[in-house]
Design goal:
By secondary structure, this protein is α/β, with parallel strands linked by helices. The protein contains twelve helices and eleven strands.
């Protein structure tokens, strides 16, 4: 029996499409997943916590058995459950849903977002930048908790969630937190034990940058943390408790940072055993003591590369940035402290670049100039991959880099 031409054409087109998808999936660094399931209804075997109608992303209803739910989801998605060299990290940052009062404030937020996007791209991690207030009763510094909670549910593949304030700038694009150091802990924050337990200072740590593990402990902890915030009927009471506990606290309302210090100081809830106080590197560093040293730091790095092996000056593709960064780290170790590494994160706490409602001890020029210096310092580390650098840390102009830089053309 002779096959009709339309049927032959249809069959040929299907075969050609199948061959194209197969070849593309093999050659592409991001293969196309091939699936021929047309059913939108989950089977009993494929059901996850997402199919539970009682699940809510809002903070008013606790999450239970998250570790088991997450494991079950990972089993259905084995590509995410496979062992890797490092834990999966999701970075979260954000800003207010409305424009800044000034164009410069919006511009600085854009530059800060680019800085985080650059860092995440170079290190192969995801970035979620939020501009929505997910819980109107938890504004300002409390707004991060509902966002982190929702992101943990949206990203069960992530082992860690990394909150970074919008006014914190990555100034060492090479460095990545030593996650293996934190295996026994569920939260990492920049802080000093002696300032917590002896001085009882509300600035003994900084809650604007922290890592929190995607686990049931984190959900329970955030519920406790949020119970001290403005969505709680005990908000006013907690303001009085925190103000009386921390004598250097200058305002009466309960804030996220004082609340976190209080939970660690008192041991309330038993949370502190799982919170790591990191102070061996600039997990986030005070901008005022950093920005004036950036030119000198650049000069010392150039000196290290000039006197070091030629591989440090060799041009490379952006996709192999991490391996090149490891070579610089190895050279820093060989220097045995003679050259200090760049500060990892420079935090412009108190500058309020969007609202302009900065701490009165800082001038607008100091904050704005400092942020541009830090942003361009970081941007030079990215632009070098593309063959350029800024003419100076306060210049928007760039200049091409000669071959074998910085050995020539400094």
């Amino acid at each position: 029996m002779q096959t009709s031409p339309p049927l032959l054409f249809t069959a040929g087109a299907f075969v050609a499409l199948f061959i194209f998808i197969s070849l593309y999936s093999f050659l592409s660094p991001h293969p196309i997943p091939i699936s021929f399931s047309f059913s939108s209804s989950p089977t009993d075997q494929s059901r996850t916590f997402y199919d539970d109608p009682s699940l809510t992303y809002t903070i008013d209803k606790p999450i239970s058995n998250w570790d088991e739910k997450r494991i079950a989801w990972l089993k259905l998605h084995p590509s995410f459950s496979a062992k890797t060299d490092t834990d999966r990290v999701l970075m979260i940052s954000g800003s207010q849903p409305t424009p800044c009062p000034s164009y410069e404030g919006d511009h600085i937020l854009l530059r800060s977002l680019k800085n985080k996007a650059d860092y995440c791209r170079l290190h192969g991690i995801q970035l979620f930048y939020n501009t929505a207030l997910l819980n109107p009763s938890m504004p300002t510094f409390w707004a991060k908790i509902p966002v982190i909670r929702a992101a943990m549910l949206a990203h069960p593949e992530a082992d860690w969630v990394w909150w970074v304030d919008s006014d914190a700038i990555f100034t060492d694009m090479d460095f990545f937190p030593p996650l293996t150091r934190y295996r026994a802990h569920n939260m990492v924050v920049h802080g000093w034990p002696e300032l917590i337990y002896e001085k009882k200072s509300w600035v003994s740590l900084n809650a604007g940058v922290f890592l929190i593990r995607n686990c049931q402990w984190a959900f329970d902890f955030m519920d406790e943390w949020a119970s001290m915030g403005p969505s709680s009927p005990d908000y006013e009471k907690w303001g009085k408790i925190l103000t009386s506990t921390f004598k250097d606290k200058m305002f009466k309302n309960s804030d996220d940072q004082s609340a976190l210090v209080y939970l660690i100081l008192t041991g309330k809830g038993g949370w502190r055993d799982k919170i790591y106080l990191e102070n061996e590197y600039y997990f986030e560093g005070y901008w005022f003591e950093i920005v004036g040293r950036l030119e000198n730091i650049s000069a010392r790095y150039n000196e290290m590369e000039m006197n070091g092996p030629a591989v440090l000056r060799r041009r490379h593709a952006e996709r192999v940035f991490v391996s090149n960064a490891k070579q610089r780290d190895a050279q820093l170790r060989r220097e045995k402290g003679a050259i200090k590494r760049r500060p990892f994160l420079t935090h412009f706490a108190g500058c309020q670049p969007c609202s302009g409602d900065r701490n009165k001890q800082y001038s607008g020029d100091n904050c704005t100039e400092g942020m541009y210096r830090a942003l361009n310092f970081a941007d030079d580390q990215v632009l070098r991959i593309y063959g350029f650098r800024h003419a100076s840390l306060l210049s928007g102009n760039v200049q091409p880099l000669p071959f074998d830089y910085p050995h020539v053309g400094r």
